[in-house]
């Protein structure tokens, strides 16, 4: 590399600067955090050039090392990632960073290697990820997450944490009392839907002041880190959703109600919406954005703002919709002259019958310049809306992979679509697509499909799936003499489970054992929460599993690789989840047969309970599948305040079970975690099987309302328990994975 390519860039004193940072300090800090043994071996330098590009080369001179030149800080991070993955054979995963295993001396690259992003924005997060996955994260978890993102080249992440702190100040200034504000805010695990104006208020206790303050302080660290890593944080704005009491203070304000949502009772939904053409809206927007700017500096001009996410507009009149967005955007521009409005495009899919082409055009049309808005085409891999909206009528938009609802954990993916559809959209004529990114509701499992899309964002041609998966597996299990059976296992999964072309099941597959038991309505569901298994378990999961166990036998070192142990548990988990369906269908067949007795039903129910029991035992062997982690993270935020910790634990439990005081969105965010499967799900199925047997014994009729009420009560009780107070509730892993896997293989394969 020629020295004159290097452009000396002065170190900026402040971390928070207007527009993307040009300081490389954040990248050097990342190296220090992740690859400390090589902290003096990397040289980064900014060069001039369009877009986000990097060049990796061997550093000239005696000391060796690697030089990465880049046009942006984000591109430098991506250049580093390209080096460590392609030449170093290591990676950073959701299960942990293995970058500290990078070899010494550093492998050289020989001929310099270039890379460029094919899109301006690489985006990450859904508003609800902040609850489904990150609700109880402390800064160390955020730090790992942001390194994961930065290295993959993400430059546009959402930053919702701590939103309420400033919102409360805005409401106080507007004359609302603390009690009135408290009655509006939702619980610590449910803030996303309050921010969307879907719900208001709390169950299980008001949002504690300490939570509000601590989250705000946390976000100051998060935003600073994002900026330092070359990302533009997307901060919130004032949406228009207000406490009911706003009408007390401003009786003449134009306030309407949003819609009823998710089966919640009126006091928890029908959220008041201050219409943007009311002067008060602009006043509150000015108040919000200027306070936010004072808190975070000029870290961004891009604001996330959703008014109609699963929330119907007061009127469908196109002039009204135009009026709403016109005044909304005016208010943003008055507060920040460079404001850009980012919107989740979920509404256009979820409420497609309301959002006709005319209405979408009117609503987007209130923002005059196309560059002043970014629409997230939220579910591009399965239900893209950009075609029917004519590329969002010219507005900037981002091709997003949603894939995971509620942090559910079943296997599913469509690598062929990820390798072709974003490129087709980008290269289509008249396209205003400007980015690619991830909008998963929860970050849980199926990691390969997310890696794949973020990598496709740096390749102008379709990634070759076979060689991609091979390289991915090789660095996921970075041991010498990796048995080929490990590659075979992933070859099977990537061409079947992760090449799912069944259009009815384009999202993580939910397991029926996570649903409230019933004699019907569980199996073969399609659409939003599919339970239909779109592949043949016996010719996919089974050989993948036996190939993984063969690999572990051939080279036992594999079991010390955390990602291998994770994948092994995950594949066996999926086997049991699928076998449960067969056991369930056998139970129902027996129950429906004319010869059924209490004893025969009890006996047909036993395999279901056996599966849940052994699954729980399996999950206990791996730290990534523990309910106790979710609860421990929540409680840790309370320090020594037990009242506060209990409040947080209730929120943590309720989200993954009843999701509402009375099971309003029951089991939406269900998880396959040790301590949840073996207590809650097992209890429900035990209760259900006993109920079916009792029916045969008593000669009574099946009463779905009665049994569902009984199951709901189990949930209400479970949600208020405190972890560690029941027998067998450990905080840490229990048991040896291979012992449990061998037991399962013998019985359930
Ligand atoms: C790689 O980057 C260098 C420096 O910007 C440039 O001169 C060269 O043309 C690039 N090569 C390719 C193949 O893009
Ligand atoms: C509301 O409007 C009424 C009628 O125009 C007016 O009399 C009243 O003063 C207004 N109240 C406030 C608080 O502005
Ligand atoms: C909003 O809904 C609440 C509760 O359903 C109701 O009391 C109130 O009158 C409604 N407000 C408007 C403006 O429709
Ligand atoms: C943000 O930028 C504006 C305009 O450049 C400037 O007046 C203001 O002081 C900056 N605010 C902060 C907190 O840096
Ligand atoms: C927007 O709606 C308000 C309330 O109906 C009305 O006063 C205003 O004139 C409208 N503005 C435009 C530009 O349509
Ligand atoms: C579910 O689908 C499978 C495969 O098509 C079929 O064998 C089974 O009978 C179906 N079960 C129910 C309850 O619909
Ligand atoms: C799959 O294998 C199991 C266990 O050997 C067997 O009971 C089942 O019938 C097989 N299912 C299919 C669809 O072949
Ligand atoms: C590994 O997978 C291949 C391909 O499906 C299969 O033929 C083979 O039997 C599997 N090996 C083991 C040990 O299960
Ligand atoms: C403990 O937390 C509760 C609930 O948030 C709060 O009301 C109380 O003031 C806290 N106690 C202390 C000593 O901070
Ligand atoms: C069956 O009868 C027993 C004893 O009377 C009673 O406790 C139970 O609730 C009954 N269950 C059903 C499902 O009929």
User: How would a crystallographer describe the biggest sheet?
Assistant: 8 strands, parallel
CATH architecture classification name of the largest domain: Alpha-Beta Barrel
Identify the strand order in the major beta sheet: 8-7-17-16-15-14-13-9
Listed once per kind, the bound small molecules are: 2-acetamido-2-deoxy-beta-D-glucopyranose
CATH topology of the largest domain: TIM Barrel
The share of residues in helices is 40-55%
**What is the class of the largest domain in the CATH system?**
Alpha Beta
List low-confidence stretches: 1-18
Computed structural class: alpha/beta
Q: Report the span from N to C terminus.
A: 56 Å
User: Can you give the mean pLDDT?
Assistant: 96
Counting DSSP E segments of at least 2 residues, the number of strands comes to 17
Radius of gyration: 26 Å
**What's the helix count?**
26
The CATH superfamily label of the largest domain reads Glycosidases
Strand portion, in percent?
Answer: 5-15%
Mass-distribution shape = globular
Total individual domains = 3
């Amino acid at each position: 590399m020629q020295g004159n390519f290097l452009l000396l860039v002065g170190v900026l004193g402040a971390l928070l600067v207007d527009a993307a940072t040009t300081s490389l300090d954040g990248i050097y800090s990342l190296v220090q955090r992740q690859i400390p043994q090589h902290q003096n071996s990397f040289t980064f330098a900014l060069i001039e050039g369009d877009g986000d590009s990097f060049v990796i080369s061997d550093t000239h001179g005696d000391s060796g090392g690697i030089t990465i030149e880049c046009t942006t800080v984000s591109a430098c991070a991506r250049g580093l990632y390209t080096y460590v993955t392609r030449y170093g054979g290591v990676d950073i995963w959701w299960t942990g960073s293995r970058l500290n295993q990078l070899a010494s001396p550093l492998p050289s690259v020989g001929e310099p290697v270039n890379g460029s992003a094919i899109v301006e924005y690489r985006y990450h997060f859904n508003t609800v990820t902040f609850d489904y996955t990150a609700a109880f994260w402390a800064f160390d978890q955020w730090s790992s997450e942001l390194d994961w993102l930065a290295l993959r080249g993400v430059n546009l992440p959402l930053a919702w944490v701590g939103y309420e702190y400033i919102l409360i100040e805005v409401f106080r200034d507007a004359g609302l009392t603390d009690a009135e504000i408290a009655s509006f805010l939702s619980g610590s695990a449910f803030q996303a839907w309050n921010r969307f104006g879907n719900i208001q208020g709390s169950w299980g206790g008001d949002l504690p002041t300490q939570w509000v303050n601590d989250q705000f302080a946390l976000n100051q660290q998060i935003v600073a880190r994002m900026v330092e890593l070359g990302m533009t944080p997307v901060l919130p704005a004032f949406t228009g959703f207000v406490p009911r009491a706003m009408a007390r203070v401003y009786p003449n304000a134009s306030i309407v109600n949003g819609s009823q949502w998710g089966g919640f009772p009126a006091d928890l939904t029908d959220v008041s919406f201050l219409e943007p053409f009311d002067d008060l809206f602009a006043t509150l927007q000015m108040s919000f954005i200027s306070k936010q700017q004072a808190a975070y500096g000029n870290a961004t001009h891009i604001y996330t703002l959703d008014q109609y996410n699963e929330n119907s507009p007061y009127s469908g009149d196109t002039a009204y919709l135009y009026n709403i967005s016109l005044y909304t955007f005016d208010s943003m521009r008055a507060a920040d002259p460079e404001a850009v409005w980012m919107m989740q495009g979920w509404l256009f899919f979820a409420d497609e019958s309301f959002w006709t082409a005319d209405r979408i055009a009117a609503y987007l049309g209130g923002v005059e310049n196309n560059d002043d808005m970014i629409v997230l085409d939220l579910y591009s891999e399965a239900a893209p809306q950009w075609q029917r909206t004519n590329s969002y009528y010219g507005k900037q938009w981002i091709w997003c992979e949603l894939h995971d609802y509620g942090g559910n954990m079943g296997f599913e993916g469509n690598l062929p679509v990820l390798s072709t559809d974003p490129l087709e959209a980008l290269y289509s004529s008249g396209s205003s697509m400007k980015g690619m990114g991830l909008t998963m509701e929860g970050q849980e499992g199926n990691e390969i499909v997310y890696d794949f899309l973020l990598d496709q964002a740096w390749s102008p041609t379709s990634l070759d799936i076979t060689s991609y998966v091979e390289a991915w597996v090789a660095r996921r299990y970075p041991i010498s003499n990796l048995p080929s059976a490990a590659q075979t296992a992933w070859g099977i999964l990537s061409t079947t489970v992760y090449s799912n072309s069944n259009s009815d099941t384009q999202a993580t597959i939910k397991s029926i054992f996570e649903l409230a038991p019933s004699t019907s309505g569980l199996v073969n569901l399609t659409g939003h929460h599919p339970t239909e298994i779109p592949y043949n378990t016996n010719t996919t999961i089974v050989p993948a599993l036996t190939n993984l166990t063969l690999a572990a036998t051939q080279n036992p070192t594999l079991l010390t690789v955390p990602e291998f142990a994770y994948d092994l548990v995950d594949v066996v988990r999926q086997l049991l989840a699928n076998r449960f369906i067969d056991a369930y269908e056998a139970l129902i067949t027996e129950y429906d047969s004319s010869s059924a007795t209490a004893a025969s039903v009890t006996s047909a129910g036993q395999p279901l309970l056996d599966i849940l029991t052994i699954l729980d035992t399996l999950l206990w062997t791996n730290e990534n599948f523990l309910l106790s982690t979710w609860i421990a993270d929540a409680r840790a935020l309370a320090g020594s305040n037990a009242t506060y910790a209990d409040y947080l634990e209730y929120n943590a439990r309720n989200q993954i079970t009843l999701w509402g005081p009375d099971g309003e969105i029951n089991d939406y965010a269900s998880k396959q975690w040790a301590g949840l499967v073996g207590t809650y799900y097992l209890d429900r199925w035990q209760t259900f099987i006993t109920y079916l047997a009792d029916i045969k014994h008593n000669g009574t009729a099946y009463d779905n309302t009665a049994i569902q009420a009984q199951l709901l009560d189990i949930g209400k009780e479970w949600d208020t328990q405190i972890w560690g107070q029941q027998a067998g509730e450990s905080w840490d892993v229990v048991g040896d994975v291979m012992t449990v896997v061998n037991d399962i293989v013998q019985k359930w394969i």
